[in-house]
Design brief:
8-stranded parallel beta barrel, binds alpha-L-arabinofuranose, TIM Barrel, 9 helices, Immunoglobulin-like, alpha/beta, single chain, 494 residues
């Protein structure tokens, strides 16, 4: 049966903050070391120590913001270990992630360098769990103070004359867990205290993000908002899509149609989380001044067989591509409250966009979705309504078959679509209302030859975007056939 979807080009829901297309890079496994940083003396071609092939791939994604250094690592990170001549930097144990030696060769200066090279805004996460108020305060002074001060002088001694521009600053990470195992009440007080000394120097104004809830912990959100909403700009939320449970998460590549269904259902749970957290926040902030910052999201599977369990290295298939599309659609739907989201993680960890092996690189299906969808960044989200079909699991549970999001920018309307069904195509009649004249349509599709289709170092282009010929335009109407398990982006020119 054909579904009918009407997109209202003259009815906008708000602006899609480009920062929902943000990323996250932690000192974890092979994300920073090997994935991004190879060092200036590496045979792998690099720019100031950062590998060129990865830089090129990331630049192409227009990544608006990058969160660093963690994650759990952030609450054990002492920033002074990562400045000054590299050969003198402290070697420490990365206790959270594999117990490996962290040589601190990638620190504050290298992070800002990376951000400059890929055109992203930095988002620094400070240490509340094991760091002091003074340490956090001095880090902000080191990065942003322009003038004569102990930390500004130290920065200059380390080769950086002018301060950097730093807007996004997180006050701790997962403080209910790896960031100190605190109660919401205790952390709310700590947040108030730590953030007091994270100063705005000169015209550098920090956008302060409080450590938020673990998935459906609405009590955490309630306490943080009640006690500290007037002292924050954003409150974070972490939610991972895990097909199984924490002790047996499921394989990234070896899955059946039931696992596919469960994974997509769990990905869509993000919609309920955002609705309910936002409703709690409305009690204290009905104007929605305080943003939800989903600074960790994505799939989390069992690690690839034979790899270090502490490195969280996983493959990425068409299932991840659909999960990414569903999340971005949900974030766009909640554009009134969600002002940033950071995919976990950038390279070689969890739902990565890039995987590397030695000097080789591949782009994952998730990468291609982010590349296709980047046209939504800073566009006006459009209202739509219609029927979206039904996709039933073997046990009769149902999800909508088609997921949609639409936006308008620079005279163009972009409609992104995902077909959740692993084996049935979807027919759509799409009508664009509120825009005059005839519409031309161009499309691009990401689809695999199987639901577990993926790119490997031997076959790096098995899953790649292609021109989409499944849409016929007639006036302001389109007939679209979406192949099973696919993601499509349509560009309509009024
Ligand atoms: O992204 C991996 C880990 O997941 C992060 O370090 C932590 O914040 C979360 O539990």
């Amino acid at each position: 049966m054909s579904n009918r979807i009407v997109v209202h080009a003259d009815w906008t829901l708000g602006t899609i903050n480009k920062n929902i297309y943000g990323h996250f890079a932690e000192h974890l496994g092979r994300c920073i070391y090997e994935g991004l940083w190879v060092g200036e003396d590496s045979p792998i071609p690099n720019t100031k120590g950062i590998r060129n092939d990865v830089l090129e791939a990331l630049k192409n994604l227009s990544i608006p913001v990058l969160r660093w250094p963690g994650g759990c690592f952030a609450d054990e990170y002492h920033w002074m270990d990562g400045i000054g001549p590299r050969e003198n930097r402290k070697r420490m144990i990365n206790t959270h992630w594999g117990g490996v030696v962290e040589n601190n060769h990638f620190g504050t200066h290298e992070f800002f360098q990376l951000c400059e090279l890929i055109g992203s805004e930095p988002y620094i996460c400070g240490n509340v769990g094991s760091g002091s108020v003074q340490e956090m305060s001095e880090w902000v002074e080191y990065m942003t103070f322009d003038g004569e001060s102990p930390m500004a002088n130290l920065r200059q001694k380390n080769g950086r004359e002018k301060p950097w521009k730093l807007t996004y600053f997180g006050v701790g990470n997962e403080n209910w867990g790896c960031g100190g195992n605190m109660t919401a009440e205790y952390y709310a007080d700590q947040y108030r205290r730590y953030q007091t000394y994270a100063r705005n120097y000169g015209d550098n104004k920090l956008y302060k993000i409080a450590g938020g809830a673990n998935s459906d912990d609405y009590h955490w959100t309630d306490v943080l908002m009640k006690q500290a909403h007037h002292m924050m700009d954003g409150l974070s939320l972490h939610y991972y899509t895990i097909p199984g449970d924490w002790s047996n998460k499921g394989s990234a590549t070896d899955f059946d149609k039931n696992d596919w269904f469960v994974t997509l259902k769990k990905a869509l749970h993000m919609d309920e989380l955002l609705t309910r957290h936002s409703t709690v926040m409305d009690r204290y902030d009905p104007e929605k001044r305080v943003a939800i910052v989903v600074d960790e999201w994505g799939t989390w599977y069992d690690v690839e067989p034979g790899t270090n369990p502490g490195f969280l290295y996983q493959q990425n298939t068409m299932r991840d591509a659909v999960v990414a599309a569903l999340h971005l659609h949900v974030f766009q739907k909640h554009c009134d409250r969600v002002q940033m989201a950071n995919l976990a993680q950038m390279v070689n960890v969890l739902q990565a966009v890039v995987l590397t092996e030695g000097d080789k690189l591949l782009l994952t299906p998730t990468y291609h979705v982010l590349e296709m969808f980047k046209v939504h960044q800073d566009a006006e989200a459009l209202a739509f309504h219609g029927t979206f079909g039904e996709y039933a699991s073997e046990s009769g549970e149902k999800l909508p078959q088609v997921s949609v999001s639409a936006s308008k920018k620079d005279g163009k309307v972009h409609v992104s679509l995902a077909n959740l069904s692993p084996d049935e195509s979807a027919e759509l009649e799409l009508e664009l209302r509120g825009a005059e004249g005839a519409h031309s349509c161009a499309g691009v599709i990401l689809a695999g030859d199987a639901i577990d289709a993926r790119n490997t170092f031997e076959q790096p282009s098995r899953v790649a975007p292609a021109a989409f010929d499944g849409a016929q335009v007639s006036g302001n109407k389109l007939k679209v056939t979406l192949p099973a398990a696919s993601v499509v982006l349509l560009t309509l020119q009024a």
